[in-house]
Amino acid sequence: MKNPAVWFRRAVWAGIIADWVLGIPAIFWPSEVLKVLGMRPTEDPVWTAFACLLVVLLSLFYIPGADDPHRYRFNAWLAVLARPPGVLFFLVFNSGYYPAFGYLDGALFLVQFPLLLLTLRTLPPQDWKLPNPAPQSPPDVSPLWLKRAIWAGIIADWVLGIPTIFAPEAVLNLIGVRPTGDPVWTAFAAMILILLSLFYIPGANEPYRYRYNAWVAVHARLAGITFFFILNPGVYPAFGYLDATLFLVQFAFAAKTMQLRPEPGLEEEDRAIFPYSGTTYREVKDAAWSGPYDTLPCHDGLTPRKFFQFLNDSSRNMHDRRDIRPKYDKLIHSHGICFAGLWKIDQDSPYTGYFAKGSTGLLVARASVAGPLTVQGFPRSFGIAGKVFPTLDPDEWVWPGNFVTVSHLSGSKARNITDIDMSNGPTIGWDPIANAINRVIFRLMDTRPGYRQLFPISTLGMQPGDKIVTPDLMMLKVDERMPKIDAKDFRDELRLSHYPDHTLVYTINVKNFEEENWTRLGILEFTDYAISEGSDKRIHFWIPRDIPSQPH
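Predicted structure:
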C-alpha cells in the first residue's frame, strides 16, 4: 500500500462520523433513534443519552491521531484500541442486547489496526518533527496544579466508573442516587467514561505538548454540566455538581497554563518567553523582509481545528514581548504587508514619550485585513500594528514601543482600503464572528478586550519617576494628499510604487474619551515595504494587558 496514513485517516474518520451520526441525535432523542434503527428499546433514556454524549466526546479525541498519527501516536493508538472494549461489551458480556454496535466496533478495529501498524512503520513527512516531549516550562505553578486538577477528575471517573461497568445497580444504590432502569446502558456509559478518561492523561501530564487533550479534557466537564443541569435536570444532579466543580478548577488553571505556554519543538529562544532585552530596527526589518512572495498567498487563518491554538495565542500575546518569533501562523490578521519608515510628531502635544512634539523614530509597521476576505467588495476589517524605535540609528539596541489600531471590526465595504480609518478602540458592529471573538473569547483574556493601550508609546524615552501622560485614543487616517489606487487586493493597493516619491503617509490623531474632536499630532511615513513570509509569520507585536484609565 503506497500511503497507509491516508487510508488510516479515512478509516478513523469513518468511525468518528459513525459515532456522530448515531450519537448526536441520541443525546436528545435516545428512544426515537433506537426505534429508527430497529433495536431493543431503552428502559432508561437518561443513561442511553448520557452514554451517547460520552461516545461523541470520546470521538473528539480520535481527531488528532487520525490527522497526524506520527505526532499524536498516543491518540492514534487509543482511537483504535477503544473499539475492542465495545466488541467485548456488546458481544461477550452483554450478548444479545445490541450486537450491531459490537459488530460495528469489530469491523472498524479490523480495518484500523493493520492500517495503523503500516502507517507507523513508514517515515513521517520530511517537514515533520517530533515536539520536544518536555519543553521548558515557565516559572509558574499553574501547570502543576492543572495536572493535579485533571488527575483528580480522572481518579473520580475511575472510582465511579470501573465498578459501575460490572455492578451498575449496586454502585448507584451505594452512592444513594436514582436507580437505573436499564443496567446495560448504565454499564456502557461507565465503560465509555473510563475510555474517555484515558485520553485525559497526556493532557494532564504534558499540557504543552498535548494541548488538544488538555483543553478537551477540561471542556468535557462542561458537557456534563449541560447534560445533568439543562437537558436532564433533577435526575442525577450530584454528577452535574461534580463536573461543575472540576470544570471551575480545571479551567482556571488551564487558562493560566496556556497563557504561559512555551512553543514545543522550536528553537530554545521560543521557549523562554519572559526574558526580553530589546532589539534593533535593522534586525526586525531584516526578519520582516525575509522570504518575499512571488505571488500573493492565501493563508488558512483561523479554522475550527485551530480554535484552541487561537485561545493559546491570544493569551500569549499579552506575555510575549519578542519582536521576532520563530515561524508561526497569524490566525486572524493572516494576510499583510510590512512597511518601514518614520514616526514623526510635529505638533504641540500635552503627552509624553514619543507622543511629545519633536519625537522622531524609526518605524516598522504591518498593515493587514482580518479574515480571508482581502479583496474589494467584501467587508474588510483593516488594521495597522507598529513598532516605534526611539532612535534614528538602525543598529542601536532599544526597546521599541508597540501600538495596534483596527477599523470597525465587522468590516467596511469601502472600495479603497485607504478610505478606512483605524483606532486603538474600534467598534464591533453586528458581525457574529467579530462579536464572538471580541465579546466572549477576548473577554477571557482582558478587561476591555477591544481596547489597546498606548502607554508603550507615551513611555518611550522616559525615565523612572517621570510623569507619564498618555492619550486614551489614537486614530490613523491616510493623508488627504495621497492618491486613490484601484486594486482588487489591498496588498496591491498599498504597494508604495503607486504613491508620490514611493511614500505613503498616515496622520496620527489622538483624543481622550471625554473629548469630541480628534487632534492631529504627526504622521507615519512609510518609505519601504515588503509582502513576505517574514511579515506574515515572524514579526510579532506585543499587546499589553489593559490598565483602565483613571478618572480625570
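Summary: Residues 4-123+140-259 form one domain.
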